[in-house]
Amino acid sequence: MPGRVLIVDDEKGMRLALRSLLAKEGYEVDTAESGEEALQRIEPGSFHVVITDLSLKDTDGMAVLEHARRVDPDAAVVMITAYGSEKIAVAAMKNGAADYLPKPFDNDELRVLVRRVMETALLRRDHRRLLEQVQDAFAGRIVGRSPAMRRVFETIDKVADTDVTVLVRGESGTGKELVVSALHYRSPRRGRPLVKMNCAALSRELVESELFGHEKGAFTGAIARREGKFEAADGGTLFLDEVGDMPLETQAKLLRALQEKEFERVGGNQPIRVDVRVIAATNQDLEAQVRAGRFREDLYYRLRVVELGIPPLSERREDVPLLVDRFLKEAAGRFRRPAKPLTADAMRACVAHHWKGNVRELRSAVEQALLLAPGAEITEVDLLGDKNAAPNATNHTAAAMPVSFREAKDRVVADFERAFLVQALRRNAGNITKAAEEIGMYRQNLQQKMRELGITADDAEP
Ligand SMILES: Nc1ncnc2c1ncn2[C@@H]1O[C@H](COP(=O)(O)OP(=O)(O)OP(=O)(O)O)[C@@H](O)[C@H]1O
Ligand SMILES: [Mg+2]
Asked: How far is the CA of 177 from the centre of ligand 2 (A)?
């Protein structure tokens, strides 16, 4: 684990003693004989630990500390202080020194201290690097060049380093969750958790206990105390997905938690304080929900301090080629297959196609085509199926022969599921809750299936 140490002291004897001691420990040691020299030598990444005497002839150790904190916050600074100058030592710690060492000290004390401080400094550096990687990964993952996506990027830039509540809106599969991740990983909260909460859970009891946690015995089945997502997200970001589906009673509790930054666990009366940034997402017409009395107006305004709308893919077709490219490369890597290009016709058809399930549907079509296309290029038929074929299961299967038995079966099953669910939705005028009830599915599962199969409100129209 050794690392680089800078010793700053204007007494030659001290410099030599410290240098030989620390070099024996395996560190790479450098020395500076004045504050000025230290200021010149400390650059970003130049040292992991800086040990400086407090009283130097030209400047004092505080100036070295301040400089180091500014140019290289990863570096740990240890202040050597004269006997009896505790007050100054405390001031140094307040200004960001990692530790201090009063004179006289013995060699062991110094060894132990440097080892500990070095370890922390290296961990902190690794941690920061990892975060940067994650951040880059998220920032780079959102693809788009359309004016609409540019506006999305701009808004992310503007609000990422603040704590404002953001409401992300868009149809299913438009990339809402991706945007939420970008907002979190580009915020100062990135080192703390991003916790996701799906508000379309089955019952109010469940949503509330998920959000706020519960005390033992709060309701039947609450056999132990449970921490809620609000607590889990402390210091970080809470992502309230499908917020439009949150039960009304829960909305009141959420509003209170947002305004007072305080809540109680279900069945508890101890107020819990947290520091959480909230980002919500929905694909619902919240304004209509408000008018219909299904969504609290005050909560609506509290959530949409900043609104980030992601348009459907059909309104930003210029993004399609970029997305196809990205998904092809990713899938080739993931499936360990050589990347195949789309024929020019296939790309044109892909751009013109109405992707009801938006980017998610495009992505699965591209992945499937890469796996199943028989030729060296991906054709329109590989990607979109055979338009001329009758839309029944047998023909669909025949269109992209040869396939394995399993793939063929999966397709037939998917076709069947799609037809079955669309019928159920139509019988219930598109009401997901009612349709789910009728066919004995959980609402959430039905929604999930609809997304997988690219079923949208249009399909469900009677
Ligand atoms: N602009 C984009 N660039 C790259 N990938 C994208 C983009 N938009 C969406 N995706 C991908 O499409 C898929 C769906 O995106 P995401 O889950 O964020 O959608 P969503 O809006 O949250 O959908 P839902 O409302 O169904 O939850 C994911 O695999 C995501 O990585
Ligand atoms: Mg989502």
From this structure: 5
Residue 173 Cβ contacting ligand 1 at under 6 Å: yes
Binding site membership of 169 for ligand 1 (Cβ less than 6 Å): no
Longest dimension (CA), the chain: 92
Residue 287's pLDDT is: 95
Mind listing the pLDDT tens digit for each residue in 110-133?
Answer: 999 999 999 999 998 888 877 776
Do 187 and 237 contact (CB within 8 A), yes or no? yes
Determine the average pLDDT of the residues in 156-161: 91
Write out the H or E segment, with its range, that includes residue 306: strand 306-309
Closest CA to 300 of 311, 285, 310, 314: 285
Closest to 118 (Cα-Cα) out of 24, 28, 13: 28
> Which residue puts its alpha carbon closest to atom 28 of ligand 1?
360
**At 74, which amino acid appears?**
D
Which of 135-149, 281-295, 414-428, 438-452 shows the lowest per-residue confidence on average (mean pLDDT)? 135-149
316 lines ligand 1 (CB under 6 A): no
Structure tokens at 110: 């110094």
Measuring CA to CA, which residue among 360, 21, 407, 256 is closest to residue 398? 407
pTM here is 0.63
**Arithmetic mean of pLDDT over the chain:** 89
Please give the Cα distance from 9 to 32 (Å, whole number). 7
Give the residue whose CA is nearest to atom 24 of ligand 1: 172
Residue type for position 274: V
Q: Does the pLDDT at position 48 exceed 90? A: yes
Q: How far is the CA of 106 from the centre of ligand 2 (A)?
A: 59
**pLDDT reading at 63 higher than 90:** yes
